[in-house]
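Hi all, posting the design record for the shared folder.

TITLE: backbone redesign
STEP: 1 of 1
STRUCTURE INPUT:
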């Protein structure tokens, strides 16, 4: 509720959307979290964390193409997410995907 109030007060507050997205993930409401993280990247096109979080959720849902698109965008903006992805369990569903391997190895 606090995040909703912050968003209502300032609809361009990407941090409020990010916090709401993390809360939704904890509640396993992945579809709503996707919507919220899409708001983050709409507000801030270079928000690597928003793309990274989208990639994690899509990976968990088994939607590998979308996961990879968002992951690629995240690491293009901020390569530190590459190291996080190597140990991130949320990427286990796509870890053996040749495109994921290529992204990990090319950086």
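Okay, here is what came back for every position:
SEQUENCE:
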């Amino acid at each position: 509720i606090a995040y909703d109030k912050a968003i209502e007060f300032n609809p361009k507050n990407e941090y409020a959307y990010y916090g709401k997205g993390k809360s939704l993930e904890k509640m396993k409401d992945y579809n709503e979290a996707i919507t919220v993280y899409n708001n983050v990247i709409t507000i801030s096109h270079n928000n690597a964390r928003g793309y990274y979080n989208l990639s994690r959720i899509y990976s968990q849902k088994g939607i590998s193409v979308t996961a990879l698109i968002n992951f690629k965008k995240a690491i293009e903006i901020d390569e530190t997410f590459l190291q996080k992805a190597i140990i991130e369990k949320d990427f286990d569903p796509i870890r053996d995907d040749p495109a994921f391997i290529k992204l990990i190895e090319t950086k």
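COMMENT: DSSP finds seven helices and no strands in the chain.
Let me know if anyone wants the other runs.
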